[in-house]
Design goal:
With 316 residues, the protein is mainly beta. The protein has helices at residues 3-11, 14-17, 33-41, 95-100, 306-314; strands spanning 45-52, 57-60, 66-69, 84-92, 103-107, 111-124, 127-129, 137-142, 150-158, 162-166, 176-182, 188-196, 200-209, 216-221, 231-237, 242-245, 256-260, 264-275, 280-290, 296-298, 302-303. The protein is globular and about 65 Å long.
Length: 316
C-alpha cells in the first residue's frame, strides 16, 4: 500500500490510540492493511519484560492472569551464567483480541469455547529460545469453576491462515488444575492453573461438542468495491465463545466462512474494510439466524470513524 497515505492515516489516529490500553503493542504475525489499521486503533493486551534466568519471575498480565517462570527455565544456571532474556506476552480475551491477532476458534477437536489464549515468547540476543526439557511455565487464569471437560491446546500460526488450535490426544488434561493464588496487590484470585512445556500460542478451552456431525458454510455478499484484498469478515457467537474468519472460496463467493460447527440464533456477522485510495474504513454488523439451508448474507458496509470503530470492536 502507499506508505505515505498510511503514515498520515496513523497520525490522524493518535488521539484515539491515546485512550487505549497502556501496554506496548507487538505481534508475532505479519498483518495485512486491514489488521494493521485495527491494531493502530485497539492495541493488544501485551507485555514485554527483561527477566533474569536466576530468579523466579511472576508476571501479572493485563487480563489479570499470572505467569510464573522458575529459575533456569530457558538456560542451565551457574554462578557465572547470570543471563537476562526477554519475555513477550500477548493475551486473547475478547473477540477484538482474536481479530487483532488473526486468531479464530478453528481447531482439531470440534466445538470448543475458548476461555483464554496467550502468546508466550522468549528471546535472547534477538533469537527465540525454547523451554528446557523437563521445565515448564505456569500460567494461572482467573475464572469461576466451569462445567464439562477442559482442554489445553497449542496454536500453530501462519500469515496466510492465522492461528489453528491443536488439542493433543488428552495428554495435556493432567496439566489443568483449579487453584487459588495472590496477585501483585495481595488479592486472592481463583482460577485454572496450566503448565506449559513449549513457548508460542497456548489456550484453555471448554469442550462443548467433540463429535460434531456436520459443518456449515456461510458466505457474505458485497458490492464490487469490497474485495478479499481490502475486507475481512468474521462470524461471532457469544453463547459458544466462537469466532471464525472468512476465506477465499471461489470467484463467485469470495467471502465465505467454513467449518461452522453449529446452527444458531445468537450469531453476528461483521466486516471491516480499509480502502487505500480513500484512506477510509468501512464497517458492517448484522445479527443472523444461521440455518442448515442458509448459504449467504448480503452486507452493506458504511464508512466509520476510527473512534467509532474502536467503540464497536471493544463492545464485541
Amino acid at each position: 500500500m502507499s506508505y505515505i497515505k498510511y503514515f498520515f492515516l496513523l497520525c490522524s489516529l493518535l488521539f484515539v490510540v491515546g485512550c487505549n490500553r497502556d501496554s506496548e503493542t507487538f505481534s508475532p504475525l505479519n498483518h495485512n492493511d486491514v489488521e494493521s489499521v485495527l491494531r493502530s486503533v485497539v492495541p493488544a493486551n501485551s507485555t514485554d519484560l527483561v527477566v533474569s534466568n536466576k530468579k523466579v519471575v511472576s508476571i501479572n498480565t493485563d487480563l489479570n492472569a499470572q505467569i510464573e517462570i522458575g529459575p533456569s527455565t530457558f538456560f542451565e544456571n551457574s554462578e557465572s551464567n547470570d543471563i537476562e532474556y526477554n519475555i513477550k506476552v500477548i493475551e486473547l480475551g475478547s473477540f477484538s483480541d482474536y481479530i487483532l491477532q488473526n486468531a479464530t476458534s478453528d481447531n482439531n477437536l470440534g466445538l470448543v469455547e475458548n476461555i483464554y489464549g496467550a502468546f508466550i515468547h522468549a528471546e535472547y540476543d534477538n533469537q527465540k529460545i525454547e523451554i528446557r526439557q523437563s521445565k515448564n511455565i505456569v500460567l494461572r487464569i482467573p475464572s469461576e469453576m466451569l462445567p464439562g471437560k477442559l482442554r489445553m491446546g497449542y496454536g500453530v500460526s501462519s500469515d496466510e491462515s492465522g492461528i489453528f488450535w491443536n488439542f493433543n490426544n488428552g495428554s495435556e488434561e493432567d496439566n489443568i488444575n483449579y487453584t487459588s493464588w495472590t496477585d501483585a496487590h495481595n488479592n486472592k484470585i481463583s482460577g485454572y492453573e496450566i503448565k506449559i512445556s513449549k513457548s508460542g500460542w497456548v489456550c484453555l478451552s471448554r469442550v462443548v461438542d467433540q463429535h460434531v456431525q456436520s459443518y456449515n458454510q456461510l458466505c457474505a455478499n458485497f458490492d464490487e468495491n469490497f474485495t478479499t484484498d481490502n475486507t475481512q469478515v468474521y462470524l461471532l457467537s457469544k453463547s459458544h465463545g466462537f469466532i471464525q474468519s472468512g476465506i477465499f472460496s471461489s470467484p463467485e463467493n469470495p467471502h465465505c466462512i467454513d467449518n461452522i460447527p453449529f446452527t444458531d440464533t445468537d450469531l453476528t456477522l461483521i466486516s471491516i474494510t480499509f480502502i487505500e485510495d480513500e484512506s477510509q474504513v468501512y464497517y458492517s454488523s448484522q445479527d443472523i439466524n444461521l440455518t442448515d439451508t442458509q448459504e449467504s448474507v448480503s452486507l452493506s458496509p458504511v464508512s466509520i470513524s476510527m473512534e467509532n470503530l474502536q467503540r464497536e470492536l471493544l463492545a464485541l
